[in-house]
Amino acid sequence: MDDPGENSQRREERKKISDSIECELSAYCTESGVNSEDFARISYAFRALIYGTVLLLGNGEIDNDQMTINNIKRQLEDILP
């Protein structure tokens, strides 16, 4: 979802955040004994939830409030082992 108008510094910042999330999630799943197939599924669902939430917040489609945070927490509990 690269924006042609986005500068390379911003793209690099996004990549660092994404890589950091993937690294932390990998460490968590390794500690939890998750196999590689399940890790791929968990990683996809986790990132989809986070990226989708950011998009919805940015578009003003959901509120940045405690209810939204609670909903995200519940969804993460369903995704993570």
Q: Could you characterize the architecture of this molecule?
A:
The model has no long low-confidence stretch (mean pLDDT 90). Helix 2 packs antiparallel against helix 3. The protein has helices at 8-31, 36-58, 66-79. It is flat, with a radius of gyration of 14 Å. The protein has three helices and no strands. The longest helix is centred in the N-terminal third of the chain and has 24 residues, at 8-31. Helix content is 75%, strand content 0%.
Which structural class is indicated by helix and strand composition? mainly alpha
User: How many E-type strands?
Assistant: 0
What fraction of the residues are assigned to beta strands by DSSP?
A: under 5%
Alpha plus pi helix count: 3
Main sheet, how many strands, which sense, barrel? Answer: none
Name the average pLDDT: 90
Q: Helicity level, as a percent range?
A: over 70%
- How many domains? 1
- Rounded to the nearest angstrom, the distance between the terminal CA atoms is 29 Å
Question: In angstroms, what is the radius of gyration?
Answer: 14 Å
Order of helices and strands: HHH
Principal-axes geometry comes out as flat
- Residue ranges: pLDDT <50 for 5 or more in a row? none
List the helices and strands and how they pair.
Layout lengths: L7 H24 L4 H23 L7 H14 L2
Helix pairs in contact: 2-3
